[in-house]
């Protein structure tokens, strides 16, 4: 009898505990920190392999036209998602959902453009050409994988019937998904500078 009462009391206590509404955001920051460390190691390998050998300048640098367009696509998607996040905080959920859906479409567009860039660049460099080719495609492929994950997160969040478990913080799932997408954009800015701008400066600068 006492045991049954204790179980009931425990269940009642659990149900009345305050919900940690930011747990998803905290978890996403942990994911971002982990993935950022991965790219830090990849960039370290990139510069280590090219150190004192002029290796990168010996290869034809990747063309910039697709890279610029992809950068613009991601930046536009980021501004749009941030705008949608503000609408969610104002309880304008249909507009926020539409903003996330358009961001999802832009993410798919980025993947299409990336495939075109790969087809073009593989005419002069493949992952098996040399160490530069290996590290170039390793870094860019890891970023593409993160874009795919980000697109899936956006799609899942768009399908949610509501954006929060409580009325006090109805925008947390949207915020968590947006946070990962901002990370994807920041990653591409670094990829754009390191893999595209720097090699072109070494050859044509």
Name a few traits of the molecule.
mainly alpha, Four Helix Bundle (Hemerythrin (Met), subunit A), elongated, about 200 residues, disordered N terminus
Query: What level of helicity do the residues show?
Result: over 70%
Average pLDDT, rounded to a whole number, is 83
Looking at how many chains there are and whether they match, the oligomeric state comes to single chain
Supply the CATH superfamily name. Cytochrome c oxidase, subunit III, four-helix bundle
Give a concise summary:
The chain is mainly α and 205 residues long.
Describe the structure.
The protein has helices spanning 2-16, 23-49, 65-89, 93-121, 131-159, 172-204. It has a single domain, classed as Cytochrome c oxidase, subunit III, four-helix bundle (Four Helix Bundle (Hemerythrin (Met), subunit A), Up-down Bundle), CATH 1.20.120.80. It is built from six helices and no strands. The chain starts with a helix and ends with a helix. Mean pLDDT is 83; it is low at 1-11 and 165-170. α3 runs antiparallel to α4 (93-121).
């Amino acid at each position: 009898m006492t045991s049954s009462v204790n179980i009931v009391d425990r269940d009642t206590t659990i149900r009345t505990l305050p919900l940690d509404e930011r747990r998803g955001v905290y978890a996403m920051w942990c994911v971002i920190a982990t993935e950022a460390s991965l790219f830090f190691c990849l960039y370290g390998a990139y510069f280590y392999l090219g150190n004192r050998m002029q290796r990168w300048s010996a290869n034809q640098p990747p063309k910039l036209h697709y890279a610029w367009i992809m950068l613009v696509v991601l930046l536009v998607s980021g501004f749009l998602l941030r705008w949608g996040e503000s609408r969610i905080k104002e309880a304008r959920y249909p507009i926020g959902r539409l903003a996330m859906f358009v961001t999802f479409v832009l993410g798919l567009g980025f993947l299409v453009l990336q495939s075109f860039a790969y087809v073009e660049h593989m005419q002069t460099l493949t992952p098996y050409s040399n160490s530069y080719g290996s590290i170039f495609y390793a870094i860019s492929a890891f970023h593409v994988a993160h874009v795919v994950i980000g697109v899936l997160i956006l799609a899942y969040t768009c399908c949610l019937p509501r954006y929060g478990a409580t009325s006090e913080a109805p925008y947390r799932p949207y915020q968590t998904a947006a946070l990962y997408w901002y990370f994807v954009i920041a990653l591409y800015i670094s990829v754009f500078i390191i893999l595209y701008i720097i090699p072109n400066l070494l050859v044509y600068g």
